[in-house]
């Protein structure tokens, strides 16, 4: 599994007098190469453009540099285009599912409208035969006419939505903006700064220092950056996974995990270096022989249920999630929750059982729900919680079992709420737990 280690803040004022100018110039050069490489890869992927020369030779000859910067920019650009194509495919699949649901909704409303128009025609015929009563008049004016008007409006809006989704489906080329579209519209200085604030140099298995442009000396904690003009040496202190990072650098020549990638991120007065490398993970040691820990993740809390080897409840627990927090506070809260739940599973030596939910399908079902409910579901950070839990559990040798989420809450409500005297969420966590252990409810 790939992990990263962040350095301390390295202020430009503590370096050589011209170091700030050199680093920022290299950042601008790298990002220019990245944007050009991305355009070449994008044109090849979406516009079927062919080039006579290779990407490396084109960019190298255009900017007149060594191979290290162009190769790094080309690798990152290819990865961006690949991720863009995957995202575009997912969006298209979601739009197709959405179109099916819209067509189904149109068909249903058209059927109701046809029925209402038939009733209207019957009333007209009754009025012609002079059998029209006061009750018929009130029904037509107060119920039938408003219903026809409402159904026509719904069908018109649904058709407009279908046309809009069909237009999105026909659009082949996605739009990309380095630096952020919001910054481009509102703050040009921030936009220009964010376009050229980082560079990522991939690692290298050959050589002594595991990288082409960054040389880490593990004896004196000095990092040498080989810029386009000269070498810049500065003191660096990596914090998390420092021992694993030094072990990668000290590995033998051409070892499989020797490569270390470095990302330099500019923050104006200082910069930070991030070391990215492969960390060996041991296989999870926990199992369901002596029970398991199941969780039911909800919008405002996580319900936890621990069971013994027979599938009986031992402990229930609730972890609240504060929806009103800001994005950074919410991420920190989810991170701490992941650590706490992982620690609980590790102390009990039991596996963690979670639902394997697909929220892309849920988003397609959010078309006809109330606005408040849609907002709540959009802020539901299930994927973030699950990613943090899986990562923490993998790093601490705790097994994560994913189960089918179908009818867990329904089974819990109908079968266990009265027997166990618990809420639906605790009973859902209990059903998830038992399903992970192999029991069938």
What distinguishing features does this structure have?
441 residues; alpha+beta; five-stranded antiparallel sheet; five-stranded mixed sheet; 13 strands; flat
Largest sheet: 5 strands, antiparallel
- Cα-based radius of gyration, to the nearest Å: 30 Å
- Which whole number gives the mean pLDDT? 88
The overall strand count is 13
Task: Please give the share of residues in helix.
Answer: 40-55%
Give the low-pLDDT segments: none
What layout of secondary structure does this protein have?
Blueprint (H helix, E strand, L loop, with lengths): L1 E5 L3 E2 L7 H28 L8 H9 L4 H61 L5 H37 L10 H6 L1 H8 L2 E4 L12 E4 L4 E5 L4 E5 L6 H8 L11 E6 L3 E9 L8 E11 L3 E7 L5 E8 L6 H22 L1 E6 L3 H6 L6 H8 L3 H14 L4 E4 L4 H13 L3 H14 L4
Parallel strand pairs: 9-12, 12-13
Antiparallel strand pairs: 1-8, 2-8, 3-7, 4-5, 5-6, 7-8, 9-10, 10-11
Helix pairs in contact: 1-3, 3-4, 8-11, 12-13
């Amino acid at each position: 599994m790939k992990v990263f280690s962040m350095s301390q803040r390295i202020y430009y004022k503590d370096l050589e007098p011209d170091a700030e100018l050199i680093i920022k110039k290299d950042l601008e050069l790298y990002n220019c190469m990245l944007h050009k490489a991305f355009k070449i890869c994008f044109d090849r992927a979406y516009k079927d453009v062919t080039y006579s020369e290779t990407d490396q030779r084109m960019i190298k000859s255009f900017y007149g540099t060594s191979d290290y910067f162009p190769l790094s920019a080309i690798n990152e650009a290819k990865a961006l285009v690949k991720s863009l194509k995957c995202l575009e495919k997912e969006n298209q699949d979601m739009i197709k599912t959405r179109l099916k649901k819209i067509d189904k909704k149109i068909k249903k409303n058209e059927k109701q409208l046809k029925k209402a128009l038939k009733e209207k025609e019957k009333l007209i015929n009754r009025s012609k035969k002079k059998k029209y009563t006061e009750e018929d008049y009130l029904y037509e004016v107060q119920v039938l006419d408003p219903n026809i008007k409402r159904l026509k409006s719904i069908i018109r809006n649904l058709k407009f939505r279908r046309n809009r989704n069909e237009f999105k489906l026909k659009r082949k080329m996605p739009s990309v903006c380095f630096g952020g579209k919001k910054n481009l519209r509102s703050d040009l200085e921030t936009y220009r700064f964010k376009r050229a604030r980082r560079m990522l140099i991939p690692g290298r298995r050959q050589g002594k220092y595991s990288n082409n442009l960054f040389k880490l000396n593990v004896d004196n904690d000095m990092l040498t950056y080989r810029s386009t003009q000269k070498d810049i040496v500065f003191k660096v202190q990596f914090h998390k996974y420092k021992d694993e990072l030094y072990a990668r650098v000290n590995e033998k020549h051409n070892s499989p995990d020797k490569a270390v990638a470095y990302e330099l991120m500019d923050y104006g007065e200082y910069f930070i270096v991030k070391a990215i490398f492969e960390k060996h993970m041991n296989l999870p040691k926990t199992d369901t022989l002596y029970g398991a820990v199941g969780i039911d993740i909800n919008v405002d809390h996580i319900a936890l249920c621990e069971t013994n080897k027979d599938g009986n409840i031992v402990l229930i627990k609730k972890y609240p999630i504060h929806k009103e927090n800001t994005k950074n506070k919410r991420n920190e809260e989810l991170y701490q929750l992941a650590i706490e739940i992982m620690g609980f599973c590790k102390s009990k030596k039991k596996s963690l059982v979670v639902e394997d939910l697909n929220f892309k399908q849920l988003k397609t079902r959010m078309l006809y729900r109330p606005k408040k409910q849609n907002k709540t579901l959009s802020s539901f950070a299930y994927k973030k919680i699950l990613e943090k839990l899986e990562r923490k559990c993998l790093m601490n040798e705790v097994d994560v079992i994913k189960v089918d989420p179908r009818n867990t809450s329904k089974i819990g409500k109908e079968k266990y709420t009265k027997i166990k005297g618990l809420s639906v969420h605790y009973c859902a966590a209990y059903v998830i737990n038992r399903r992970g252990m192999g029991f069938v409810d």
